[in-house]
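Re: beginner question about structure tokens

> Can someone show what the tokenized structure looks like for a real chain? I only ever see the sequence side.

Sure, here's an example I had lying around. Input first:
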Amino acid sequence: MKGFSIIGGILLVLLTSGCNSDSESSSSASGPSSSSESFIGNGIYKGDGNDFMLVDSTRANNNVFLADLDSGEFYVVDNSTATETQMITRGLTYSDNGNISRVEDFVATANFTPDTVTITAQLEDQNFIYSMDRAEDSLPLEQIVGTHTNPDDGSTWEINEDGSFVINGSCIISGNIKRQGAYYNINSASAVSCNNSAENGSYYGALITLNIADNYYLFGIFANQASLLVTSFRQS
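And the corresponding structure tokens:
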């Protein structure tokens, strides 16, 4: 499938400015995220192509992750404010085929209906716009327990019944997933024995499942103040 070679196994990109975990306060001038309790937009969204977005207004920071697998672009916002049907995001770190950029003054507007989202902004003097439909929530834990293998490089993701997991690829990444709304939160994970020792360290992140062309894929998003790792595995 077009685009999936981009994130076969583990993609590591170095960030020029770190993302923050749920338990950390944001270092950006706009401060931590805030949200209306009536906000309707939390969930997973899927576009017409191989693009998807995770929205969680309840996180202290990094409330939106957007991936465009066809173009090899990945976006993580710093923080946001939300009303019932709209989210304003501020600050952005993004990877364009491994080339990392940081935009401190980036502001995007996401407008939600119960079933759709449209996010618009200006990025590098070009219009930034994605329209997506709400996707189903991630699969229940019992449906993703087991060992999932990426045929491109032989890397594996083993998920246990208690939520603990081990990814064995260019790094060995271990941690725990915990259900949080439409996805699984990863409060803490550890990467060791990396091919590049600079990649070793502690991470936080998320796991989502997505139905693409009648096949389910597991996407793992891992970040710390130096790195962003994105993994993909077809459900075994």
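Each token stands for a local structural state, so reading them left to right follows the chain. The domain at 141-234 is CATH 2.40.128 (Lipocalin).
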